[in-house]
Specification:
Layout: E1 3-9, E2 23-24, E3 27-28, H1 29-38, E4 45-50, H2 53-61, E5 66-68, H3 76-84, E6 91-94, H4 104-116, E7 122-128, H5 132-136, E8 142-145, E9 151-155, E10 174-183, H6 184-192, H7 197-202, H8 207-211, E11 217-220, H9 231-244
Helix pairs in contact: 3-6
Length: 245
């Protein structure tokens, strides 16, 4: 296979319990994500990776492919690494289990970036911030990139600092969309890296790659998403889908 999409899904959540199984217009959230991922033309296969029998049963009930993983993993990245370890695959896309509005082109973009440029080992997405509330929200991760669109830093804080914005200078602000593509070799390397100080300070795993000297390509997407971390987020997704049908 060239590309496989893995959706790590766990039952427990600090702010919204059992969110993978949350009902969204008659379907569990994990099914919305799975079905949208299946529409991505680049993917040869989509697999849900979970350590919970309830999620496994739900995925099986709607006809999806699921692998039951160890309960000892501390992150979704570790969970998907277990799933792909024995797979003959070039690129793995980590599809977050809390992004029910993801667009299939997002998956295509990050995967093709690695397939078409052999020097890249990791890619992700950013989206232009237009709402000041998002910029100030610590649940929404912000990202700064360099002139070649490689990540400089990710933070839950408002970055860059625009307090001293000069007149006539437009500083674009971006939020991070948590979909990642990795080469298989790099994913296995990443798993073996020691967690970094910045990663632990921000609770952002991708900072481990930057602090260890690896480059992350960040592509801009025009598609908006809502990461479901709270009941408010879930209600927002439901309103959006109701209005779009």
């Amino acid at each position: 296979m060239d590309v496989v999409g893995i959706i790590p899904a766990r039952y427990g959540s600090t702010r919204l319990a059992a969110k993978s199984l949350a009902n969204i217009l008659g379907k569990p959230m994990i099914q919305h994500i799975y079905e949208r991922a299946r529409e991505a033309s680049v993917l040869d296969e989509v697999i849900v990776a979970t350590d919970d029998e309830r999620i496994k049963k739900t995925v099986c009930d709607f006809g999806g492919k699921v692998v039951l993983t160890s309960k000892d993993h501390s992150s979704g990245t570790e969970r998907l690494t277990e799933v792909v370890f024995d797979l003959d695959v070039k690129v793995i896309v980590n599809i977050q289990g809390d992004e029910p509005l993801l667009h299939p082109s997002m998956i295509n973009d990050v995967a093709y970036a690695l397939l078409e440029n052999k020097e890249l080992v990791m890619a992700t997405l950013k989206h232009r911030i237009t709402d000041e509330k998002e910029f100030d929200n610590p649940n929404i991760v912000k990202v700064i990139t360099d002139k070649e669109n490689f990540a400089v830093y990710f933070s839950r804080s408002p970055i860059p600092n625009v307090l001293r914005k000069k007149e006539g200078v437009d500083i674009p602000l971006y939020k991070h969309i948590g979909i990642y593509a990795y080469t298989k070799d790099f994913l296995l390397t990443f798993k073996g890296l020691k967690p970094s100080r910045l990663e632990e300070a921000e609770s952002l795993e991708q900072l481990r790659a930057i602090e260890h000297g690896y480059k992350i390509k960040v592509l801009e997407t025009k598609h908006e998403t809502v990461s479901v971390d709270t009941q408010e987020d879930l209600d927002k997704v439901i309103r959006y889908l109701k209005n779009s049908t």
